[in-house]
Design brief:
With 219 residues, this protein is mainly α. It is built from seven helices and three strands, in the order αβαβαβαααα. It has one domain: Rossmann fold (3-Layer(aba) Sandwich). It has a three-stranded parallel β-sheet with strand order 1-2-3, with helices on both faces. The radius of gyration is 20 Å and the shape is globular.
Length: 219
């Protein structure tokens, strides 16, 4: 079997590189719309999965003096979304820093297909209705509008050219002198990463720019 031969070769010579890219971005919503299982699922895939795969091949990587390439996100540098996504990406960034000899790829908005998005959207609306009922449902409606406007804004930033990310991965694996960090996408380089260094009141002003809020009641 070719697979067995490859495994035997890796055990003998080591493994040159591992690229961790798997992840899910949904569910993403206000924290109080979610359940603890929503957090656990994403943490298990986006963070624990990266750590587990890396640890499983780390002895082979060290033997070959190879490379670990972990794909993170700009949302591991600035948190703008509810749910566990930003939490997991901050964790990946911390894991990268603790490894030291690693090639992190910090991506921004790229157009891809998330198989979890459609089914989860229905679940989100159902959970929100059950949790808030008619009394607080007006507030939920405001939040839905807010999320819709934010999604519309982010949709305009989506880059269909996934080769920008692939090229960074290829360079990180094959280059004689890989970069310390890769940031594919113009918005990562010129917007999100600079925004992460801004004072909190500036980043908060951007995040809350399109947020829909009900007027304060005056008794």
């Amino acid at each position: 079997m070719k697979e067995n031969g490859f495994i035997d070769f890796c055990v003998f010579a080591g493994l040159w590189a591992v690229v961790n890219n798997a992840g899910i971005s949904f569910p993403t919503a206000p924290h109080d719309w979610l359940e603890i299982e929503d957090f656990k699922q994403m943490i298990n895939v986006n963070l624990i999965g990266v750590v587990a795969i890396t640890l499983s091949v780390l002895p082979l990587i060290k033997k070959a003096k190879g490379r670990v390439v972990n794909v993170a996100s700009v949302f591991g540098r600035i948190s703008t979304l509810g749910g566990a996504y930003c939490i997991t990406k901050y964790g990946v960034e911390a894991f990268n820093d603790s490894l030291r000899s690693v090639c992190p790829v910090t991506t921004s908005f790229f157009k891809y297909f998330d198989i979890s998005r459609k089914n989860w959207s229905k679940k989100l609306k159902f959970n929100a209705f059950l949790r808030y009922k008619p009394v607080l449902y007006l507030g939920v409606a405001y939040a839905f509008i807010s999320i819709y406007l934010m999604n519309e804004r982010y949709e305009k930033l989506l880059d269909p050219d996934l080769m920008k990310v692939v090229s960074c991965m290829e360079h990180a694996v094959a280059a004689a002198h890989p970069r310390t960090r890769y940031s594919p996408g113009w918005d990562a380089k010129f917007f999100w990463l600079p925004l992460s260094y801004m004072p909190t009141f500036i980043s908060d002003a951007f995040v809350l720019k399109d947020a829909v809020k009900p007027k304060v009641s005056v008794l």
